[in-house]
Amino acid sequence: MENEDQQQQEQDQQEQQQQQDDVDLSTLSTADKIEYITGLIADSYNINIAPKLEQFVDIQIAETIYHFQANLTLLKLYQFNPSALNKDYIAKMLAKAIMNFPTNDFLFLSYMIPSSMQKEEPLLKLFVLNGLIETCKFKEVWEHVEKNEAFFSAIPNFISTLHRNIGSNKEEEEYTYVLLHTDSETIMIKIDYAYNLFPFLKYNNIVVSSVLAITYSNVTLPMLGELVNLQSPKLEEYLSAKPNWKINGNVVSLQSESHKQKKSDTFTFDPVTG
Predict the structure, then answer these.
(1) Distance from C-alpha of 217 to C-alpha of 259, rounded to nearest angstrom
(2) What is the mean pLDDT of residues 50-73?
(3) Which of 60, 16, 64, 59 is closest to 40 using CA atoms?
(4) What are phi and psi of 60, to 5 degrees?
């Protein structure tokens, strides 16, 4: 009797697997795709779902769909089943995470990728790009993108999404960055990264200023063009889509009045000695 029950259970599992394999994601509506994948990842340790999750990664790349939990599940399956690992799909998942900036999706995914693999192509291109974005080195961002244009251009809407996200300043969202002033340079990074770094900083006279919004309060038109990698007339086109940004002569105010009214605190830290 016990053997019969076990055989029935195995048969049910095989039928369920066959039903999953028979589903063609490309024929489903967006809502049905999401519903199907959400149900699929409930069995998150089943390596047999990996091919469908990989197919869904391709769909995310081709369409305006993003499902972080599905991508995280696929990375976990790779982690527990190294023989199934596919670096091309990892690269696609990282690209979608960058396109979802300023969330921490890229950071969460990176925890599951061995540091040695992070230095391998094509992953290295994405890790370098994310590092430049996180530290707000926008000029270097565009230099890196242009240097690897063939790779990034092959990802639909990737570059246009970067333009939009780097210039993002949504009223309903608030992100805190800090400026680190040293003798040689000034850099802007997320405040949580700054606090993690403080014990290891060896600079003198570090002053940290809390900055609200994702970029500067005011910036000249030439500098803005450099930051978003756009020149006239595309720069003017870009600005026309930013109703909260105000142009006064050669200066652009990137914050709305409500943002300007918020107080910015300044903290001074004693020099760190080794």
Answers:
(1) 9
(2) 94
(3) 16
(4) -60, -40
Residue 114 — pLDDT band, cuts 50, 70, 90?
A: very high
What's residue 267's pLDDT?
A: 42
Q: Which of 121, 123, 115 is nearest to 92 (CA)?
A: 123
From first CA to last CA, the distance across the chain in angstroms is: 72
> In the structure, what pLDDT confidence band is assigned to residue 18 with cuts at 50, 70 and 90?
low
Helix axes 30-40, 68-80, angle to 10 degrees: 40
Half-sphere exposure of 184 (CA within 13 A, CB side): 2
Torsion sign, CA atoms 113, 118, 121, 127: positive
CA distances from 150 to 136, 146, 182 (A): 23, 8, 36
- Domain interval for residue 137: 2-166
For the chain, give the number of residues: 274
pLDDT(68) > 90:
yes
Report pTM: 0.66
Element housing 144 (H / E) = helix 138-147
pLDDT in tens, 146-165: 999 999 999 999 998 888 87
Give per-residue pLDDT as tens, 236-254. Answer: 888 887 777 788 888 878 6
Q: Does residue 25 sit within a domain? A: yes
| Paired strand residues for 230 | none
Considering the domain architecture, whether residues 34 and 134 belong to the same structural domain is answered as yes
Nearest residue to 102 (alpha-carbon basis) of 152, 159, 177: 177
Within a domain: 7 = yes
> Which runs of consecutive H residues, i.e. helices, occur in 45-170?
50-62, 68-80, 87-99, 105-110, 115-118, 123-134, 138-147, 149-153, 158-166
Cα separation, 47 vs 77, whole angstroms: 6
Is residue 104 a part of any domain in this protein?
yes
